[in-house]
Write a structure and sequence with these properties.
Order of helices and strands of chain A: HHHHHHHHH
Number of strands of chain A: 0
Shape of chain A: globular
Radius of gyration of chain A: 18 Å
Structural class of chain A: mainly alpha
Number of helices of chain A: 9
Helix content of chain A: over 70%
Oligomer: homotetramer
Strand content of chain A: under 5%
Chain lengths: 192, 192, 192, 192
């Protein structure tokens, strides 16, 4: 089984998710700058989700790169990840429409957490398929980014009930740590 | 004729189908957990359809894998399958919006049945194009999953008029039998 | 310049066009079979357009197959074709919503005609890029299907103002002649 | 890292952007030609944006063609470009719905300007990754089209507050200069 279609299908689904999120930026009735003001929270929540979906695409791209063949278990673990990603537009819109209040912020965090779990599951499935000398296992190493961001999602969910603002800052930080260039997989490839 | 574009186009259409189904999860007006309650049936029906579309993509991926060239008849048999799959969002939404009542459940089953027929037709078209020593024919074998799930769709359609709940359980079982790892095609490939 | 991305981009756009057309099948409020009755014209017009978009994808697939390199002129001729195809959902919905009355039927025919012209223009652009011994030119031959269907679109547009029903039958026939297996390009390939 | 998925993902996102823009052509209630008249401004603004997205796809296609490997910085610079392109449907609809008045025209220009900046940033990122003998750097040369169109966007934004009509003509001219065949990259390739 080649990985070409797994990548193509994932690219398609992620491309659609990242693009339809913008549809909640509904065209306002007026034609003045001030008519755009009510859209600001929806826009901000779109920006945050765009970054998150971008991170997932980016990591998915790197992870699959280490993969030479595809198993049935990987197909399903991948679909499971796409399922949680497909809920991003909904949670983005609910949070944006409600100006970042408690419950929508918590749900946003829960779906991020589930997607992180699904990503981890896919990673484990690939590592298992690669056997004891798994290239991906070595490349991932101790996976501090994966662990730290998962911890931050859990903290953000808890905090959101007391202070949604603080929870959003935590979720933003959890995104930004992924923007730090990560050369683990690239380095391992260079060593080969 | 290469199969690259047939796969790419099918991936695109299936990726869009699986993703737009989530659009019926309309953002509620309130910002509390309880405001999500009316969305539960739509969500459940989304989950069921996500699994079904995932199964079709998965099987399509395996089936096309055995294929080395593409004929005009295959292009049309494939479009015919995509047509029935494209009706999944509509039947999913109608069933979810109406809390799984009789007629929407029956229609959901009918479209599943038509998609199964279309899949079988595509399978036969590929087998015919491969001649007497068809690799796919051998790999598919007696196709108990295909036959059993088709039977279950027919039963579910009939049952839905008496007890939609039972019909939905049958449709769920018909989905789950596809999640049992199926190594027929992978096995045949290993033998080669 | 390789043709890979031209095909991938066209596949993406055509996949989206063929799939979003189904969105006009709006979920009815009731949950009985009779609630689906008002959707029948929209459904029929969806089926017709699905066939037409399928034909375009099919022909596009064959035509590009004869192509080894891509020029700037071809990129724009292709985008021009995609522009007219992108209007299919609108004309499909307008015709379906209005139960196949005169003006929507005429507009449907006009957009079909413009797409046919754009397809012809793309074909000529490719033939010109292939020089005097153009493979595509020989394969296309006298192009009776292209000429006949263009003629039928023109006739259907004229007829639609007197009898939309007859116009629709003509448009259906124009679609069906493309379903007749056409082995011109496949034959030319076999000769090589 | 190969560029295949970067191209595939970008193609997917751009294909969706170019296609969903047509969704704002909402089906009118009446079935006469005159019922289409209110849609004319939305249609015109769709045509302008279709050309612009087409230009971006075209240029992206050429630019990536000169690229042999992909770095992490390129992935993010590319996502940044896609972010601004993803706002095209919104600005197109706002401008079309409001019959090309001042503020929507200015915003349309601002998003075009940001996309141009993002494109330039991606170009610089690729040139830097190619080292001192960058193929792309030589091919791009003095980049008069890039510079002139950026200047025209800035002028159009300023002018839009006094005369939106003149601003739109400037934006149209900025689009048309990209339709002039540009053989820089093709020429450089031929030299190799």
């Amino acid at each position: 089984m080649s990985k070409g279609r797994l990548e193509a299908f994932s690219d398609g689904v992620i491309a659609i998710i990242i693009t339809i999120m913008v549809l909640e930026l509904k065209v306002p009735h007026g034609d003045r700058w001030r008519d755009l003001v009510p859209l600001v929270p929806v826009f901000l929540s779109y920006v945050l989700s765009f970054i998150y979906v971008g991170i997932y695409w980016n990591n998915h791209h790197h992870m699959l790169h280490t993969c030479t063949h595809v198993t049935g278990a990987m197909l399903w673990a991948n679909l499971h990840l796409l399922f949680w990603l497909s809920l991003f537009p909904f949670t983005t819109w609910w949070m944006g429409e409600n100006h970042f209040t408690a419950d929508p912020t918590a749900l946003y965090g829960v779906v991020l957490l589930m997607a992180a779990m699904a990503y981890l599951l896919l990673q484990q499935t690939i590592i298992r398929s690669q056997g004891p000398d798994s290239f991906l296992k070595e490349a991932v190493g101790r996976d501090w980014k994966g662990k730290l961001s998962t911890l931050l999602y859990v903290v953000a969910i808890g905090v959101s009930f007391f202070s949604p603002k603080v929870a959003q800052v935590i979720l933003l930080i959890a995104a930004l740590i992924w923007l730090i260039p990560d050369r683990r997989i690239e380095k391992r490839l260079a060593v080969e």
